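Below is how a single chain appears once it has passed through the pipeline. First comes the sequence as given, then the structure the pipeline wrote out for it. We keep one example in the README because the format questions we get most often are answered faster by looking than by reading.
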Amino acid sequence: MKYLLLMVCLICPYCLSAQTEENAYIRRGNTQFKQDKFADADVNYRKALELNPTNSRARYNLGNALLSQRKPKDAMKEYEEAVKTEKNPFFKAAIYHNMGVILQSQKQFAQAIECYKESLRNYSIDDRTRYNLALCQYQLKKNPNNQQQDNNKQNEDEKTNEKDDQQKQKQQQQDQHGKEQQKNQMSKENAEQMLRAAMMEENKTQQKVRQAQQQRQKNVEKNW
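Resulting structure:
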């Protein structure tokens, strides 16, 4: 990533209208970030998001902290969420720029180019984005096979995930079917037990009736 120009413009809460508790966490995180205490900054940005999950500025700063901790995959997730709600064109451009940096460093040149273009649509005069875009276009032209390999790998990963999901679904269906069979078996056993109990009770009743009849017969014979 040394040849790429990263855009890290931390958003200062003093620029925000209300000095809320979430802004205090952002301000604290920014101070720690500037001191290269990225893990501590990470914690404070997350605290701000706990108070307001839609705070795109805190999420963008969290993405920067994660990227500085060499966690590009986690950073990308935060950028993707931040860009959905960010309205300010400058900061939206910064988010797309950093997404492009991550994709370009992973040799996903075509996707990175789209992110840089989207960044320039929001803030057209940024030379860092123009530089990265030109470099990425050169890399794609020089190594078209790498992009195809990345696309093939992505397709294979998607197919693998789809296959795993199908297997999980099949296993869940089998488990559910097994539970239903077990439940039906238990119901059948319960019914059989109840039937046997009823038959035993009926036999006892019939036996008592026969005994009573025999006793009455004896009484009649005695009286005769």
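Residues 144-223 form the longest helix (80 residues).

See the next section for the split statistics.
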